[in-house]
Amino acid sequence: LHLVALNLPFSGDVRADFQCFQQAQLAGLTSTYRAFLSSHLQDLATVVRKTDRYHLPIVNLKGEILFNNWESIFNGNGGQFNIHVPIYSFDGRNIMTDPSWPQKVIWHGSTANGIRLVSNYCEAWHTADMGAMGQASPLKTGKLLDQKVYSCSNQFIVLCIENSFVSDPQG
Q1: What digits encode the pLDDT tens for the residues 133-164?
Q2: pTM assigned to the model
Q3: Half-sphere exposure (Cβ direction) of 75: Cα atoms closer than 13 Å
């Protein structure tokens, strides 16, 4: 399953699932992508289908492994990943080095176990208000689910996860 970033940073007011869907389509990717965010309807840990959570590796746009599987992101260690494996945007830029994302921080709105934090998810990702708070993770920690709270007015990285693996019917 591919983990890919949106092509621009976003504040806490983001139609993230729609953006993930649209940018994946524009990049010519045929599977479905969902935001790597907890929402008012769903905990982050359950965004990927149950059948795909254990046996498929989580990879970057170029197929390099970030996590052995979806479940390993939520084992309580904060989603520790190898910071030497880049995360790319849908248009192929390395979010860790590209200046389009001046703040190397990822919105997630979740606990370390991928459960939604209702007090810290920018009102279900509908506000960029200075006073509202969102849970996010600085990439330099090497964790996708580090527990830091920021104002929803910040423009941070939004990740998208391929939420259903579709094998090539011609394959």
Answers
A1: 999 999 999 999 999 999 999 999 999 999 87
A2: 0.94
A3: 12
